[in-house]
Amino acid sequence: MAHDTLLERLWARLADAPSDGEAAQLLADALQSDGDRGRRALGELLALERELQREPRWRRRIVRATTALREAHATELLGPLAGLPALARDVPGVRASIEWGPLGVRTLSLRQDLREGDASDIARLLDEALALPALRLLERLEVNVVLFGGPFDAHRDVVALLARRAPPSLRTLTLQELGDPWGEPLGVEPCALAPLSSLSRLRALCVVGSEVALDKLALPSLHTLRLEGALPAAVLAAIAAARWPALEVLQLGFDAEAAVSPVPPIRALLDGRCAPRLRELTLDTYGTARHGPALVEAIATSPQRPHLAEVALDRVDRATSDALLARREAFAHLTRLGARPDVGPRPLRLKGLCRHVDCGEHRLERAEDDRFVEVEIDEPRVRVREGRIGHPGRLRVLDTGWRGCHREIEARRLDGYRTVRAAYGGRRDEVPNRELWDAIRARPDAPAPYRAYAEWLRAWGLPRAELIELQCARAERPDDARVARREAALLGDDHTAEILLGELRPHVAGVASPSLVLEWRFGFVRAATLTALPGDDDLDAAAEVVALLLDHPSGRLLEELALANLSPDAASRVQAAVRGRGRRARITRG
What we know:
Blueprint: H1 3-16, H2 21-32, H3 37-54, H4 59-72, H5 74-78, E1 94-101, E2 104-115, H6 122-129, E3 140-148, H7 156-165, E4 172-179, E5 191-192, E6 204-208, E7 212-213, E8 224-231, H8 233-241, E9 249-255, H9 263-269, E10 280-286, H10 292-300, E11 310-314, H11 318-326, H12 328-331, E12 336-340, E13 357-358, E14 362-366, E15 371-378, E16 381-388, E17 394-398, H13 401-414, E18 418-421, H14 434-442, H15 447-458, H16 463-476, H17 481-492, H18 494-501, H19 505-508, E19 515-521, E20 524-531, H20 541-551, E21 560-564, H21 568-580, E22 586-589
Helix pairs in contact: 1-2, 2-3, 3-4, 6-7, 8-9, 9-10, 10-11, 14-15, 15-16, 16-17, 20-21
């Protein structure tokens, strides 16, 4: 068999089954015998990855060898991508972020800021990059364009290129086209996505901010479709007119103030034929909430309604709440109903409509008698709702403020309740996936399950995805200064910190007592040091901060907690808070 033919067959085999160890070994051997320097270097990398899987005890040595090989052959391996600055740098031109996997480059992110008169270079660079052997098994591609002036056809060339040259291994594609947040509307021409129909194995498509046209788009393997932006009714109609046989997760943002109502296409989309496997539906409204009741009616009367497990609506006003209550039997089977207002009070009347109604509260449950407690802080009041799961429960209003809120939560935990949902600033930190989380629990020190979880989170645009990938890369390449700088920039970003830390931010910044120093690993806090500032004699403050950390998704895997400058009484309360949550974090006192 000719050498090039063998390589093509092996690449095709691995595109179908990336975990095929035999094919990976054969590909490594074949590339190492190639006359091209770039292919030989890639073959050596693949051989080192195979050795790492066989001999994990030599991990440190193999990782050093892999890093040195990538640096020595960066030009041959990455071509025009080798000299690009990191995404975190604010410089002209195209910036890039590259994540390596066991079969070459796994994830490629490109970004360019365009001003009036500029030309986009992303399509040209991508065209050259996709010809490289190191990108033949690319799984995830993200293209970000920020427009300062215009209009531009920022993604048109990229879409046309991918229609011709996208590798068969590509599973996740993200196209973000964002305007200057302080500028005027850009009037960007819609980008036709129909050419992407050639990507028949694509699993997740995320288009953020860009005006798109979906006519004749057909992606039979698509699992997740996320379109963020003020989509016109014509785009919604195009989605409803297509067939999505594998689609399970759908998130749409539409223009509620447009002259044409979005309700008819949403109703058509839920007819049971368009997306028969749809389980999760999120509708983001841009503008007013005037279509809320009609959307509720469309969902409640749709053939797809019995198959939905999660529904999320934003801008839920009183009229929308009334419509949900009038149709309560249609939503009783849901595992989660998201009903968050844009402004004003939360629609707490919806409690009990289904098992979990997410209005942004802290929820605890006790399994032995099927009871729940939800605590919401609205300074200076605290609203506490409790009762049997699946029922509205009884509401109490307390004038105890922020500290009273956490004391109420602590008392419930000591009474056998466990947190099932924590709210931080009204922002959703994660999208549940029990299978992926169980894999992390089973192998907490292996990067592979975290990377799978990061891929899940990335489809929703959540920053923990990038943090996981960066910290997995740092574990493999501890001396990589570019990865370290990007990680520091990500954790230093205000928007990211608000999601990853929530109410812990002032304690991590050292401006509130007690201060908190965190040690991250694979996207989660593994160790923390809690230090009371001089003059702080509040015995409950340390326990309350530890409670915040343990309840936050970032603290799920906390293993070590060091206490400094705490009185014996305050330290004992911290220990009680940890025990009350059933956690086994090791506590030391300095």
